[in-house]
Design goal:
The chain has 378 residues and is α/β, with parallel strands linked by helices. It has 13 helices and 13 strands. It has one domain (3-347): TIM Barrel (Alpha-Beta Barrel), CATH 3.20.20.70. The strands form three sheets. Strands 3-4-6-9-10-11-12-13 form an eight-stranded parallel barrel, surrounded by six helices. A two-stranded antiparallel ribbon has the order 1-2. It has a two-stranded parallel ribbon with strand order 7-8. Bound molecules: flavin mononucleotide.
């Protein structure tokens, strides 16, 4: 049995293999509501054999959306369309997860293909998409040309922590089985964690323990609203790749603090904090963030997920086998091939006669294979 296709358990949830669909924003929601696009987008990965299927970054408050097209769970009325999706994922044998998010100073942004720059009057005129004010731990703009966010008051901080808890409760009602907090890529929780964006002098800023306080309080509030038997994950940027930014060693300390607040898995990404200088010291290669997952797993003693530029089935099997990570997450590779898990299983000798496929496809593929070999065509 290849390690990539062995089962994995977290709390009361069993994943049939180690492949997760990394959260992928579609920017197709209307006022935060999910629709058929999201069902089909996520459904194709369920049919492709992924064990854990994450719905994209989902805002816990209206103002916490990154773009006007983000999903949201700030209101009970947003539960029903997500419940339909979670139900489909569960019925077809995968585990539905959802990523909860607040954009902080990256709120009120254009979609990637509209420029990934702040919304302005042009968006209001062309698409009726109006800019809204953003807030952050410190009043520092994301990059040149971005508005300066309001520095969050204690009341703002408490309100966002409560909003994460309320959204977790709604995620449970919708039928999701895993929550991941988006604490990476320069969004609000990461803005608190990183010394580059958090220059507060109060209990929410300063040393690593203080900067991690917001993340820890978010985790505790979710745990108060999320069943004991369901896993809670955090996606962290394990390195800011910048001088004076977060390092993998800080991330180990943060992971230890999160673990004691009830977090079960760290999804190890990196980068995205923004700012003026943005030195990109990253060397991008296959699995370039895997060492972060390995370090956090061994030094914080917590399960991890590896993500980023991963596509090779044998390499994935090896990294799970070696204990670098407990799961892997794929994004763009799955856009290219939603059936990647099934193809990877075949490549690793775990899918003879297409038995892992949904029978509606697998039966026909098996018949075709037999015919092709009988005719000597394959
Ligand atoms: C279309 C798209 C949307 C994304 N949206 C999110 C998101 O909502 N939340 C998140 O944590 N990462 C998001 N990401 C980043 C991916 O989850 C992933 O970490 C990144 O693409 C690296 O993995 P890959 O090399 O397999 O694509 C997105 C990536 C893509 C391609």
């Amino acid at each position: 049995m290849p390690s990539l296709f062995s089962a994995f358990e977290l709390r009361g949830v069993t994943f049939k293999n180690r492949v997760s669909v990394s959260p992928m924003s579609q920017y197709r929601a209307q006022d935060g509501f999910a629709n058929d696009w999201h069902l089909v987008h996520l459904g194709r990965f369920v049919m492709g054999g992924a064990a854990l299927v994450y719905a994209e970054a989902t805002a816990v408050t209206r103002d916490g959306r990154r773009t006007p097209g983000d999903l949201g769970l700030w209101d009970d009325s947003q539960i029903a369309p997500l419940a339909r999706i979670a139900d489909f994922i569960t019925r077809e044998g995968s585990v539905p997860g959802i990523q909860l998010s607040h954009a902080g100073r990256k709120a009120s942004e254009r979609r990637p293909w509209h420029g990934e720059t702040p919304l302005d009057d042009e968006d209001a005129a062309v698409r009726s998409e109006h800019a809204w004010p953003a807030m952050a731990p410190s009043a520092l703009p994301y990059a040149e040309g971005w508005p300066t966010p309001r520095e969050m008051s204690d009341d703002d901080i408490q309100a966002v922590i409560s909003a994460f808890g309320a959204a977790a409760k709604r995620a449970k009602t919708a039928g999701f089985k895993v929550i991941e907090v988006y604490a990476a890529h320069g969004f609000l929780v990461h803005q608190f964690l990183s010394p580059i964006t958090n220059q507060r002098q109060d209990k929410w800023g300063g040393n690593t323990e203080n900067r991690a306080r917001f993340a820890v309080e978010v985790a505790r509030e979710i745990r108060r609203n999320w069943p004991e038997d369901l896993p809670l994950a955090f996606r962290l940027s394990a390195s800011d790749w910048m001088d004076n930014g977060l390092t993998p060693e800080d991330t180990v300390d943060i992971a230890i603090a999160l673990k004691s607040a009830g977090v079960d898995l760290i999804d190890c990404s990196s980068g995205g904090i923004g700012g003026k200088d943005r030195p990109q010291r990253m060397t991008i290669e296959h699995g370039f963030q895997v060492p972060f997952a390995a370090q956090v797993r061994s030094e914080a003693n917590i399960p991890t997920m590896a993500v980023g530029f991963i596509w090779d089935a044998a390499a994935c099997d090896t990294l799970i086998d070696r204990g670098d990570a407990d799961m892997i997450a794929l994004a763009r590779e799955l856009l290219d091939d939603p059936n990647w898990p099934l193809h990877a299983a075949s490549q690793l000798g775990r899918n003879a006669d297409h038995t892992l496929w949904p029978v509606e496809s697998g039966w026909w593929l098996m018949k075709r294979d037999r015919l092709l070999s009988k005719l000597g065509l394959r």
